[in-house]
Design brief:
The complex is a heterodimer of chains A (485) and B (421). Chain A has three domains: 153 residues, FAD/NAD(P)-binding domain (3-Layer(bba) Sandwich); 147 residues, D-Amino Acid Oxidase, Chain A, domain 2 (2-Layer Sandwich), CATH 3.30.9.10; 84 residues, Arc Repressor Mutant, subunit A (Orthogonal Bundle), CATH 1.10.10. Chain A contains twelve helices and 23 strands. Chain A is globular, with a radius of gyration of 23 Å. Chain B is α/β, with parallel strands linked by helices. Chain B has three domains: 190 residues, FAD/NAD(P)-binding domain, CATH 3.50.50.60; 133 residues, FAD/NAD(P)-binding domain; 92 residues, Sandwich (Immunoglobulin-like). In chain B, strands 1, 2, 5, 6, 7, 8 and 20 form a seven-stranded mixed β-sheet that branches. In chain B, strands 10-18-12-13-14 form a five-stranded parallel β-sheet. The chains are: A alpha+beta (485), B alpha/beta (421). Chains A and B meet through strand 18, helix 9, helix 12 and strand 23 of A and strand 7, strand 8, helix 3, helix 4 and strand 11 of B. Chain A: It holds the Pfam family Fer2_BFD.
Chain lengths: 485, 421
């Protein structure tokens, strides 16, 4: 019998699980995917918003600013890339200047610190590559960029280090309520628990309706992006948004924590909660839209395109509450933007709800907020590099030529708590294949290392989801000789 | 700090030929650094034949061709380090490199020869829409899996792009029992060698669709199919021409790009057309004492041409060490004229030309019955009749040293002219 089951191992589920691991609770996090962060968390803008955008009085408004303020600390504890680079909302005409002023005022009410409306000259000075058309911008220095899946994996790992369990490839098929709590039926056996956090992203509606009548609906909103090669991120120094107009929110141009450039997203409401495919017309659309911000994006350096789904609720705000019909079942639903930014605060808020139900929780004395630091070889000085290879020669072998990722880093990413077991899982943890060759050279080597370390047949190593097989069979020459009678 | 007269970055065909030639020209203290587990580079995975017709006058496979150079290198006692990666080329030609045995190394080089080869353009680079399932491979990655690792990557295959590796993989996959349904090429002509079109597609009844592009990849986890459509003159898809192929694998053969991250970080000037370093007649880059050769400079279609170019780089690196290269004096620029996409080398110092000046170039379209004309400051110095020209087949021109008489600001141009009937 568990005290708490967290359904969904995205950024929200992992944040809550890590928070739960601070207390004397038997906790497990489950996910239908074969890796942490495999839904919305792996495909979004990776922005930690300052918090001026959310409407005053909403949960989004309250939790975004609070979450933003918590980011630096948690990323430091967990050794995760986070950069507070600040954001601009640019205006190209008077009408857009007005909407920037509105944002500024909203930001003041949401207690966003140090915002400033910049003149055309100030914008040019801070961002020389932006379009000449820009007449001013709202500057929010507290906005930042993060690596969302890196954070989510780190949270899961730290939670596991502190005693929480992780069960992947576990899909919830039904939930039964009884006097003691709940029995969750999964493809991977039944799980008994007293309390449940429903953090299932686009599927929170379906999970909720397993225990209670419909109280909200969730639909997926798809956004598409372009990622450009490393080095291009220096075209801009801040996260650059466009002022919202009656035609929508515009598109953003931002560096990523690893020095790539990211542009997107668009917004397209869909029915299909699995549809993360990209389309040429939408990619062309975001590229065209980005030209309003800057014409200097070198699209010929695009290394990949992707699409992600936001879980949009019909209620227009985050839904973080105990179900009225199902005691001890807490929904954390409708976590669309600024969900990533608010995530640390959402976790705290959610734990408070649990404390409201069961009373004050006992802190675990042995809780360790830090995880074992990650060696990122290329970020070391020459002396440190020499030292690291001396200790473990596997750091002297480069597997990924584009990003210069060593075998040591890949082996480490496999063997940590919440370690990677797929080619993309390793890519998200230590970046081989993230570069311009997109795994062309390192893919076979990463598979070889995965198979060796996990003692698996290389043919069973998948790209990402469990059906994403890569190799079909041995070649004629490599086939074991058939035994004939 | 380790010290060598010449350090060669890359032990593929270019690096091997350059190192051997440098040694033959009197430099003893040479180190070849190779990032893979064996010497020979991509040739090791090219188990088909057709290599060496120019250099050895016989048909060799890739590994056989490589082996000839590897044996020679070893016999000459040239040092090499395998499984070793160059991280950076710093000031004063100091190289930082790592491997598992020596750890972190700083290596001071009298001269450096860059021969890192090239890499393949990927799906991301050409923005193919759809999901991102497994089963999309560059042709070279598939080639490595099949020929070196011993695994098949799929059963029903569509190939996008008609580069040579794609064509060769069409045949290879067929021989391994896979079904290759089609090769689609965006341009109205193939990017591969004619002999590969014949021997790899026609001989196996694999259809080649010119002026076609990939519209979409179906399948979320593994490729389930692809949609291909015809394109108009502006390379835009023509509505209604879409064809669906039920397949589990998509191979991409959509071009190669010289791999110049180390060069770029070292501050070496690159040519935006070739994506390789700007070089002079000695294959020297914009940084003195740093030479480059092979696919890192521009993508070649035959390894024999790589060998020839690399010998030039090796010989000149040796001349540089022996202080036989003159750095002052007049410099001419080469400029592609009508019908020519680029010319290598980009600069010429006539004093340093050894016998003939060899210009390599590619044309920008398929042409028939043309004259290829070389001019020096507008004055014709050479004219050649060409029956057939195609972007997939590199052209070269030899100019005699005595024809290279020029003053300041000289430009050598090559252009195509229709042959009068």
């Amino acid at each position: 019998m568990y005290d708490v089951v967290v359904i969904g191992a995205g950024i929200i589920g992992t944040f809550i699980t890590r928070e739960l691991s601070k207390f004397d609770l038997k906790t497990i996090i489950i996910d239908k995917e074969n890796d942490i962060a495999n839904g919305t968390t792996k495909a979004n803008s990776a922005i930690v918003h300052a918090g001026y955008d959310a409407k005053v009085g909403t949960l989004k408004g309250k939790l975004n600013a609070k979450g933003n303020a918590m980011y630096a600390h948690v990323c430091e504890e967990l050794d995760v890339h986070f950069k507070k680079i600040g954001s601009f909302v640019i205006a190209t005409n008077e009408e857009e200047m007005d909407s920037i002023k509105d944002l500024y005022e909203r930001g003041c009410k949401n207690n966003i610190p140090d915002m400033k409306i910049l003149s055309q000259e100030e914008v040019r000075e801070m961002e020389p590559n932006l379009s000449e058309e820009i007449i001013g911008a709202l500057y929010a220095p507290t906005a930042g960029i993060v690596s969302p899946w890196e954070l989510s994996v780190a949270l899961a790992e730290n939670a596991a280090d502190n005693g929480a369990e992780i069960k992947l490839e576990t899909e919830v098929l039904g939930i039964e309520k009884n006097e003691k709590g709940y029995v969750i039926h999964t493809n991977n056996g039944d799980i008994k628990t007293k309390y449940i956090f429903n953090c299932a992203g686009v599927y929170t509606q379906e999970i909720n309706e397993m225990v209670a009548p419909r109280s909200f609906t969730i639909h997926p909103r798809r956004g598409q992006y372009n990622v450009l090669d490393k080095g291009t991120g220096s075209i801009v120094n801040h996260v650059i948004f466009q002022a919202p107009t009656k035609f929508g929110k515009g598109t953003l141009v931002t560096p990523t924590v690893h020095g790539n450039l990211l542009i997107g997203p668009d917004a397209e409401d869909l029915e299909d909660k699995e549809n993360t495919s990209t389309t040429s017309d939408r990619i062309a659309f975001i590229q065209e839209k980005s030209r309003k911000t800057t014409t200097k994006v070198p699209f010929n350096k695009t290394i990949t395109s992707f699409a992600g789904l936001r879980a949009v609720s019909n209620l227009g705000d985050f839904i973080i509450e105990e179900s009225k019909e199902a005691k001890g079942f807490i929904n954390v639903a409708g976590i669309e933007s600024p969900g990533l930014s608010a995530a640390p605060a959402i976790a705290e808020y959610a734990i408070n709800i649990l404390e409201g139900i069961i009373g004050e929780l006992n802190k675990r004395k042995e809780f360790n907020p830090r995880r074992k630091p990650v060696i990122r070889f290329m970020e070391l000085t020459d002396e440190e590099k020499a030292e690291v290879i001396k200790k473990d020669p596997r750091y002297g072998r480069i597997i990924c030529r584009c990003e210069n990722i060593t075998e040591g880093e890949i082996v480490d990413a496999i063997h940590r708590n919440a370690g990677g077991r797929t080619v993309d899982g390793i890519k998200r943890r230590s970046r081989p294949g993230m570069g311009r060759c997109q795994g062309g050279f390192c893919g076979p080597r990463v598979m070889e290392i995965l198979a060796r370390e996990l003692k698996m047949d290389i043919k069973d190593i998948v790209k990402d989801n469990k059906e994403a097989y890569i190799l079909t069979e041995e070649t004629k020459q490599n086939k074991p000789e058939e035994v004939t009678a | 700090m380790l010290k060598y007269d010449i350090v060669v970055v890359g032990g593929g065909p270019a690096g091997l030929a350059a190192a051997i030639e440098a040694k033959k020209n009197g430099v003893d203290n040479i180190l070849v650094i190779e990032r893979d587990r064996e010497l020979g580079g991509i040739l090791q995975q090219c188990i088909h034949n057709g290599f060496g017709l120019h250099v050895f006058k016989e048909e060799l496979t890739g590994p056989e061709y490589a082996e000839k150079f590897i044996v020679e290198l070893k016999e000459m006692g040239i040092e090499y380090k395998l499984d070793t990666m160059v991280l950076e080329i710093g000031e004063e030609r100091v190289i930082s490199a790592i491997n598992t045995e020596d750890g972190f190394m700083s290596i001071k080089a009298g001269a450096i020869i860059l021969s890192m080869g090239c890499r393949e353009r990927t799906r991301g680079a050409i923005s193919i829409p759809g999901y991102r399932p497994a089963g999309v491979f560059t042709a070279g990655t598939a080639q490595r899996f099949v020929n070196m690792e011993g695994y098949m990557v799929g059963k029903k295959v569509v190939i996008l792009g008609s580069g040579d590796i794609g064509l060769i993989m069409a045949r290879r996959m067929t021989l391994e029992g896979a079904q290759v349904l089609a090769v689609a090429e965006l341009m109205p002509f193939s990017g591969g060698l004619t002999r590969n079109i014949v021997q790899c597609l026609e001989d196996y009844d694999i259809p080649l669709y010119l002026s076609h592009t990939l519209m979409e990849i179906k399948g979320k986890d593994r490729v389930e199919g692809v949609v291909i459509a015809e394109v108009d003159k502006n390379r835009k898809p023509i509505k209604g021409t879409e064809k669906y192929y039920d397949c589990d694998t998509l191979l991409l053969s959509v071009g190669l790009i010289p791999e110049n991250e180390i060069s770029k970080n070292a501050g070496i000037k690159l040519d935006p057309i070739t994506s390789g370093p700007i070089v002079n007649e000695s294959m020297e880059t914009s940084i003195e004492g740093v030479f480059a050769c092979g696919n890192v400079v521009h993508v070649h279609d035959l390894v024999d041409f790589v060998t020839a170019e690399s010998k030039r780089a090796g010989k000149n690196a040796a001349r540089y060490i022996k202080k036989e290269i003159k750095c002052e004096g007049k410099i001419a620029k080469t400029e592609p004229g009508d019908g020519i996409r680029y010319i290598v080398p980009h600069m010429v110092r006539p004093e340093n030309v050894d016998g003939t000046l060899d210009l390599s170039m590619r044309v920008d379209n398929v042409y028939k019955d043309m004259n290829m004309i070389v001019k020096l400051n507008g004055k014709e110095i050479k004219r050649m009749k060409k029956k057939h020209l195609a972007p997939g087949e590199m052209e070269s021109v030899k100019i005699k040293k005595e024809d290279l008489v020029f003053k300041e600001d000289t430009v050598i141009t090559v252009h195509l002219e229709k042959e009068e009937a």
